[in-house]
Amino acid sequence: GVYQMIVAIRVGARLVLGPGAEKHADLADGERVLRILMERMPAGEAAQLAARITGLPRNALYRSALKDSK
Q1: pLDDT at res. 6
Q2: Is residue 70 classed exposed, middle or buried when 0-12, 13-18 and 19+ CB atoms within 10 A define those classes?
């Protein structure tokens, strides 16, 4: 059979549902994901994976990771 996954994330005070919803994540959400990932992997890998999860630009997340590591 065919399975569909419903993606739901909170953006500000609203809930966004449906495919591609992760593209609406704001930088604060991306930084939260980034900090969690950095507990288990180097900053570059964490930024790359956080970008895939949130849809945010990898470079912006990586700069944030470098700032947090200082």
Answers
A1: 47
A2: exposed
3 state SS of 56: coil
Could you give the CA distance from residue 35 to residue 2 in angstroms, rounded to a whole number?
34
d(CA 57, CA 48): 9
Averaged pLDDT, 8-36: 64
Q: Which two tokens stand for residue 59?
A: 């470079």
**pLDDT class for 8, splitting at 50, 70, 90?**
very low
pLDDT at 25: 57
**Residues contacting residue 35 through CB under 8 Å, at least 6 positions apart:** 68
Element (H, E) at 14: strand 14-17
User: Using only C-alpha atoms, what is the Rg of the chain?
Assistant: 13
